[in-house]
Amino acid sequence: QVQLVESGGGLVQPGGSLRLSCVYSGDISNIYDMGWYRQAPGKQRELVAHFSNRGYTTYDGSVKGRFTLSRDNTQNTLFLHMNSLKPEDTAVYLCNARDPQYRGYWGQGTQVMVSS
Asked: What CA–CA distance (Å, rounded) separates 41 from 25?
């Protein structure tokens, strides 16, 4: 199994920046792909950024150009740099990893609040 621990959330003003971290451990050799999801109150959980098995990144249209996904295998960490944050970005952000059988593993989530 894979364990995921997110960190880096907090309260920021509109236009501010945050860097989220997802440290993965356990059977990391069995990770197929990873991603960041978010879920706001009253909203459906949505995929924000995806890191494919081939190392390609894709982004939801609502964050493209503002968020940047990267992975550091030496630190076993998936990062999400978030710039130009908007109130609409307020949500619990969750890290996800899938194994080759597409079984998903989730972190506990980290809260991002964007408010003036």
From this structure: 29
pLDDT digits (tens, 9 = 90+) for 68-91: 999 999 999 999 999 999 999 999
9-26 tens-digit pLDDT: 999 999 999 999 999 999
Q: What is the DSSP string of the chain?
A: -EEEEEE--EEE-TT--EEEEEEEEESGGG--EEEEEEE-TTS--EEEEEE-TTS-EEE-TTTBTTEEEEEETTTTEEEEEE-S--GGG-EEEEEEEE-TT--EEE---EEEEE--
Q: Is 34 helix (H, G, I), strand (E, B) or coil?
A: strand
